[in-house]
Amino acid sequence: MKTRLVIIGVVAAIIAVLGATMTDYHDGLGARVGIYFVAILGLNILIGYTGQISIGHGAFMAIGGYTTAIMSYYHHTNLIATLPLAFLTAFVCGVLVGIPALRFHGVYLALATFAFAVSVPQLPLKWSKWTGGSNGLRTHTTPSNTWLYGVSWSCAAILFVVAWALLRGRTGRAFRSIRDSEIAAASSGVSLPIYKTLAFGVSAAFAGVAGSLLVLVTNGFAQPNEFGVILSLQILIGAAVAGLGSLWGTLVGALFVGLLPELSSSAPLIGSSHGQDVVFGLIVVLVMILLPNGFAGLLRTIDSRVNSAIKSDTTTS
Amino acid sequence: MGMKGKSIAVLAAVAAVAAIAVSASGAATKATPGVTSSSILIGGTFPLTGPASLYKTIPFAEKAYFDYINDTKGGVNGRKITFEINDDGYDPSKTVPLVQQMVEKDNVFAVVGSLGTAPGLATWDYLNKRKVPQVLLATGDSYWGYSGARKYPWTMGWQPVYPGEAKLYGRYIVKNTPNAKIGVLYQNDAFGKNYYAGLRVGLGSKKGNIVDAESYDATNPDVTQQILAMKAKGADTLAIFAIPTQAITAMIVATKIGWNPQVYLGNVSGNRIFMLSAAGKGANVDGVISSNYITSNTAQPNAAGSKLAAQIVAQYAPALQATYNNGDANVMYGLAVGWTFVYALQHAGKNPTRASLMNALHNMNTTNPFIYPGMREQTSFKGKVHDNFPLEQLIMTKWAGGASGDWGTFGSIVNKVR
Amino acid sequence: MIGFSRKTKVTTGASLPVIVGIVVACVFLVVGSVRSDIFAQQTVAGLSQGAIYASLALALVLIYRATEVINFAQGEMAMATTFIAYQFTLWHITFWLAFFLTLVVAFVFGAVVYAVLIRPVQHRSVIALVIITVGLFILIDGLVTWKWGADLKFMQAPFGNHVYRGGGVAFSRQDIGVLAVSILSVILLWVLFQFTKLGLAMRAAALRPAAAALVGVRVDVMLAIGWGLAAVLGAVAGIMTEASQFLQPTMMQPILLYAFAAAVLGGLESPAGAVVGGLAIGVFLNLTGQYVGFATSEVRLPIAFAVLLVVLLFKPTGLFGRKQVRRV
Question: What is the ipTM of this complex?
C-alpha cells in the first residue's frame, strides 16, 4: 500500500514539474494526454470492470464538450464551472444509454454503442441553429495551454481517486462479479440493472469531462468532426493498451494515444501523418496478439517474474 | 514485495517520457519570428487529404514559385523562402493544433495561403491575438475583407469574394432568364452560406424564383438526395456552390437522373480538370456557366503567364506537369498567390517585419502575370478607406466541347465584384 | 479475464410473417413508383445504393457466420483491394481483367488476414477481437494513404455512363449493373453453400468445428476460405462504390456503417438477409429522405442506426434469423 502511494506521489510530482517547465506548445500536448487519461479511465470502468463493451465513448465526450461550449457561449459560464455540469449531463446520458443496453450483450452491445458513437456527432449538424452546425461553437474565453495542463491533470488526479475509491468498495466487487459471470452475480443478489447502468453512467461522466477539456484544448471549439468514430476507437485502443481491469496502465495508454502521433511525425523514417497511422495500427495489432492484457498485464508478468526470481533466490540460499 | 516489479516499470516509463519532453521543449524565439539573414519561414494549412483534397496541388504550385524565386533571384533581399505545407484535411479541429504548432514551435513569419473558410475562421482569433499575418487565404469569403479589416487586421483574403461572384450570376439570370426556377446546392457552413446570400442579393426582386435550396455537409460526398429534391420541385436552373467533390457529383447525378438544368457553377469548382472528370463519368457539361480570374494555360496558351508557368512547372514542379497540361487551374492559382506574396515581401523593406508585410499587402496596385490578362491586384489602406480585397474582377465563362472541351469567355471583364 | 464464449446457436431462414412483410413492401414500392415519378426515381436510386450496402453486408455476414467476428476492418479491406484494382489500371491493364485479378488478390488477402491476425486470437474475448479488427482498420488506412495518397482519384466506370429513360424515370446502366452484381453474388454464394462439397465443409467448420474436424474437415482452411470469399465480396462492393463516388481512403467508411445496419437488419448469420437488408435500408433511407421533412441528409446515418437499434431491441436475430437460446 505504502509503495503504491510513493509511486503515485513521484509520478504526480513529475507531472507537476513538467507542466511548470515545458513550453506552452508541449503543455498543450500534455493536456491532451491528461484528457485521454480521463477518458480511458472511464472506459476501463465500463469494459474492464463490468465487462460491457462500448465503442461509443466519443459520443459521451461530444455531449460533455458541447455542454461546456453551449454554457460558455450562451451564458458565459466560468469554464471550470462547466466541468461538473458536463460530468452530470454525461452521467445522465450514460444512464439513459445503459438502460436499453441491459438487453444487449457482447458483439450486439458493441454494435449498438457503435451506432450511438456514429449518430451523436451528426446531431449538432441537424440542430445547427443552436450548435453552430459544422462551423462549431466557441467558448466565450479561451484559456492558455498551461492553464489547461493544470486543469486536465487536476481532473485526472481527482477522477483517478474517485475511480479507485469506487472500485475498491462494494461497488467494485459488484462490478467485478458482473464481469465474471452475470448469472452468478444475479443469483448472489447483485442487482444487474442498478450496477450495470451505474457503470455506464459513471463511465460516461468521465468521458464527458474529457470531452469538455478536449473542446478547451482545441482553442475552445466544439465541432462535430472532433468527436467522430475515430475518437471512440482511439479511446478503446488506449484502454486496451493500458490493460483492461486495472487502473495501473492508464497512464501508459494515455501516453500511447496522446503522444504517438506527435512523436512519429517527427521521426525521420515515418515522417508524414500517414506513416503514423501505420505505426499506430501495427502496434495495436501486435499488442493485442502479444500482450493480451495490455500494459497492466505486462506489469503483472514482470512483477510475477521478478517475484519468482526472488523466491527461487531465497529458497536456494 | 510484489510492488517492486511494478514500481520499477512505471518509474522507468515516466522517466522516459519526462526525458523526451524536457529535451524537446524550449526553442529560442527570435526577434522577428521566422526571419534570419538568409531565410524566411512561412507556412500554411491545406487539404492534402480529405474531402477537399482535389485542391492539393495549390500549395505545391506556390512552393514551386518560391523555389523559382530562390533559384533565379536568390530569394527576396537575399533571403530564401521556405514554405511549410501542413495537411489539415479541411477539418478545422485539425487546423487549430497545426496553426499552434506553426506559430509556437516552428516560429513562422506568416501564415500564407491557408485553404478553407471554416479552417480560417477557426484560427483567426488565435493568429490575430498573436499578431501573426494570416494572409492570401485560399477562400473567397467576404469576412476576410469586411470584418477582417477592422477586428482582425492581420487577416486578408485574395480571390474575388463569393458574394460578389454569386451576385454576378444572379444579375445574369435576371437579365437572361427572368422566369427561371432556381435550385441551389450549397455547403452548410460559412463558405456555402456566403455564396448563397450573394445569389439572393444578385437576384434582387426575383429571389422568389429560388424554388429549393439544399445544403450538404463537406464530409459527405453523396448529394443524390439534394439533386433529386431539386428536380422534384421543378427547378430548371441549378446553382452549385460547392467544393469540387460535391460539385462534380452533383453534375453527374443530375445527368444520371435525366435532369438537364442550366448550371451556374461557383468558380471554386470551375477548374478544367474537375469538368473533365465530371464529363468522364457521364455528366452533361456543355453550357455550364461559371467565371474566372486566372489565366488558363489551355484557354489562353499564349498569355505571358502561361509561358512563365510552363517554364516553372517544368523545372521546379515536374510532378505537376501532367495535371498542368490538362489545364489544372490549381497550378496557376498557386503560382499567382506565390507571385503576390513575393511582391509584397519585396515591398516590405530590407528587413521585413510582420507589420511591414501587412503594410505592403494593404497597399498594392499591380498586374500579376498569372491572373487573367487585363485584371489588376489592388488594395489600399488610406485613412479611413480600407480596401482589403486584392482581386475584384471576374470574367464570365461557358463550357463547350463536352469531355474534351474547355471554358470559353464571354462578355467583358466585370469590375467591382464584391 | 473477460470472456464471452459462444453458447448460443442461431438458425436462419425467413419466417412466414417476414416473407409476407417483404412481399407487401415490394407491392408498396411498385404501386408508389407507378403513381409518382419522384417515388420511382428515389426507389431506383435506393436500390442502387442499397445493392452496395448489400455487398459489403454480405461480406460481414460471411465472416460472422464463419468465425463470429464482427470485422470492423471490412470496409477498409474493400477499399484497399479497390486501390489495387486502380493500380492495375494505372499499369494499363484493361478494366475487366483488372477486376478479376483484384478478386484473386482479395481472396488471398482475406485468407492471409485470417491466418495471421485472427486465428491466434480467435478464442479470446469479444473485446480483443474488436480491437484487433479496429487496429487492422487503422493499419490498412495508413498503408493505403502512404502508398497512394489520400487525395481523390478517378477510375473508369465499370458499366459505362448510359442512361435509360422509362416513363419519367431515369435508370443508369450503373444502377442496373450494381444491382445485378449484388444479386448474382448472393446466388453464387447460395449455390456454393447448398450444392458443393466445399460449401458443406465450410458450413460444418463454422457450425460444429469439433465435429467437422473429426470427420476430416480442415477447419482452419475452411475458415480462411470464408475470409477470402468475404474479401472478394468486399472488393466487389468497393469497385461498385468507386463508380458512384471517387476513390479515396475514406470512401468505404460510411458504407461500412450502413452495411452494419443492413447486416443486423437481415440477420448477422443470413446471407440472403444481408442482401434484403441492404436493399431495404437503401430504399427506406431514400424514401424517408424524400417524404419525411425531418429526415434531412444530416440525419441519414442516425436513421440507419435507429433501424439497427430497433432491430436489436425487438428482434436481435434480424429478419431472417430465428430465436437464439442462451445456455449457461
Answer: 0.81
